[in-house]
Specification:
Layout lengths: L1 H23 L32 E6 L7 E4 L5 E4 L3 E4 L5 H12 L8 E7 L4 E6 L5 E4 L6 H7 L12 E6 L6 E6 L1 H5 L13 E4 L1
Parallel strand pairs: 6-10
Antiparallel strand pairs: 1-2, 1-5, 3-4, 6-7, 8-9, 8-10
């Protein structure tokens, strides 16, 4: 009888000890999720602020100076004319960049000038699609536009078009120089590259 009691007591003690050990043993943490590879994520938005273009109508306000405050239009040569400072290149600048340029030019004549540049009316912005498309011509830009969107608005390709060797001709700043950007339509529709956004005045040539 005593032997049976001792065996039962030992079994209870061992069971309690195993529960204590189990409670003290830390549970393995789940593996951390793999970090996302952001280097290959496509760029879905265009980069850069609005840049002034010939034909844009501006209002330049110089604080507490009604004579220097002017309503202007960017000329075809990309410049505007202000009292005291004369001609200033405005095309291809953002309104903030033009503000800073006018401010620096006025410091020679005005103490601590405070300048504001307002775009009153932007000139119509277009891109051009030409070559082996069904509807070549100019396309108005009413917001950010990719090459794929411009090609769709041009009606798509003609039968013998070469979509692998499309070229985008883009003017470099306010100069007559032009850069050529290669675009492969087949790669774009497979999603292997980031979206290519057009700039105002770009010409898309489909061979």
């Amino acid at each position: 009888m005593m032997t049976t009691l001792r065996i039962g007591t030992a079994a209870v003690l061992l069971a309690g000890l195993s529960q204590v050990v189990s409670a003290q043993t830390p549970t393995p943490a789940p593996p951390a999720p793999a970090a996302a590879n952001t280097s290959s994520l496509p760029r879905t938005t265009p980069v850069g602020d609005y840049r002034l273009a010939p034909g844009d109508k501006l209002r330049v306000e110089v604080y507490k100076d009604a004579q220097l405050s002017q309503s202007l239009q960017v000329r075809p040569d990309g410049k505007v004319t202000l009292p005291l400072v004369g001609d200033i290149v405005a095309a291809d600048l953002t309104p903030i960049q033009l503000r800073d340029r006018i401010t620096n030019s006025l410091k020679e004549y005005v103490t601590n000038p405070v300048v504001t540049v307002i775009v009153v009316e932007a000139s119509p912005v277009t891109v051009y699609v030409m070559g082996e498309v069904l509807q070549p011509g100019s396309i108005p830009m009413r917001g950010p536009m990719t090459v794929l969107q411009a090609l769709a608005m041009a009606g798509g390709f003609r039968e013998f078009a070469n979509p692998k060797d499309i070229r985008i001709l883009r003017r470099i700043g306010n100069t007559p120089s032009v850069e050529t950007i290669r675009f492969n339509y087949n790669d774009a529709i497979r999603g292997t590259g980031a979206p290519l956004f057009l700039m105002p005045g770009d010409m898309v040539v489909v061979p």
